Amino acid sequence: MKTNLFAILLFVVCAVTTQTLSQRVWAQSTATSMGMTADQATAVKAIKIANLDKDTYFKSGGFILDRYEERPAYVFTYSDGITRKIYLYKVFTAQDTKELGLLAIYKNEKSGDVKSFVIPGASADRKAWDAYIDDLKYVGEKEPGLMSTLTFVLSREMAGLLAGGSGKSEEGGDKKKDEYNFCFAADAPVTLANGSSKPISTLQAGDVVQGYAAATKTVLPTRVTKLNVHEAGSFTIAGVWLSPAAELTAGTQAQPTAPVLFEATANHPVLTATGRKALGEVTTGELLYRTENGRAEAYRVVRTEAAVRTVDRVYSLVTEAGAYVVGGTIVLDK
């Protein structure tokens, strides 16, 4: 009897917490915007993720899945010795990047069982919510440890929102449609392992490009595991102008090298002297790294541009090393 009461309590807490969380996360939605439909919920639930730890952003079946707040998995190890994990993804439509809700994925590391729960946004169709409640009741209660881990994760995220999170940008506005597109224009030259280059749009999984190992600070070949393509949109390409850091500090009278332009969307991560940073957050005077003769050389930012040009299609790579070289500059996987 106590076990049944505990299960019912977890079910109620999880349902109430989820509803509150969804209202907080999607409070910026307008009253006229259409939320997730029951058919969309079914389609999202059917999406299979090959590698939950590595696949943090991808498109599938007309949807974009993006790891919630770039969180790693929540990991739980109970007294039964079984490790359980919860992964959270934001769900967007691929066509117009409209936010629909969350996908919570539970994994039992011992059995390998994976359970998906589609959590609709606050403005979703009632039938989408009914499907989620049914999953909590008829799927969640059959797997020991699932309801408690899911309840904890959703409660923890809601607590963070109540503590001050708003789901909006620092400027107070809604997140832009291209916020989740960490990319380059089609003609961005990616350096191959042999030193030549190819436009990023022509690469494919299996190609070997020039990569970078941050742990050893060495340039090395790395294999492309995936090419991401984002189309049917309007994407602003930002830029920074770079000059050799050693040349700027040598104080010689030699003719300085003309600055080189590096382009990407403002949120694409690059390697700086202080670590990973979005290109749009890089300021004049900071150091980025370019590859020369198989080595990483420091280049200083001498000028930044918020908008160099606009393109209607952008690309990014996923690599085994987690870093590759575009236009001679070391960039990081999303």
Describe the structure.
This protein has helices spanning 2-25, 38-45, 126-138, 146-162, 245-250; strands at 57-60, 63-67, 74-77, 83-93, 99-108, 114-120, 184-185, 189-191, 197-199, 208-213, 218-230, 235-244, 260-264, 269-272, 275-278, 287-292, 295-311, 314-319, 323-326, 329-332. The chain is of the alpha+beta class and 334 residues long. It is built from 5 helices and 20 strands. A hairpin with a 5-residue loop joins strand 3 (74-77) and strand 4. The strands form 6 sheets. Strands 1, 2, 3, 4, 5 and 6 form a 6-stranded antiparallel beta sheet that branches. A 4-stranded antiparallel beta sheet has the order 7-18-11-10, with no helix packed on it. Strands 13-12-17-16 form a 4-stranded antiparallel beta sheet. The longest helix has 24 residues, at 2-25. It has 2 domains: 2-179, no CATH class; 181-332, Hedgehog/Intein (Hint) domain (Endonuclease - Pi-scei, Chain A, domain 1, Beta Complex), CATH 2.170.16.10. Helix 1 packs parallel to helix 4 (146-162) and helix 2 (38-45) packs across helix 3 (126-138). It comes from Spirosoma sordidisoli.
The residue ranges in which pLDDT falls below 50 over 5 or more consecutive positions are 5-13, 23-33, 165-180
Overall pLDDT metric:
82
Percent of residues in helices? 10-25%
| Count of domain modules | 2
Sketch the major β-sheet.
6 strands, antiparallel
Q: Please report the number of helical segments.
A: 5
Based on CA atoms alone, the radius of gyration comes out at 23 Å
Distance between the termini: 48 Å
Order of helices and strands: HHEEEEEEHHEEEEEEHEEEEEEEE
Strand content: 35-45%
Q: Which class of secondary structure composition applies to the elements?
A: alpha+beta
Give the CA-based shape.
Answer: elongated
Instruction: Tell me the total number of β-strands.
Output: 20
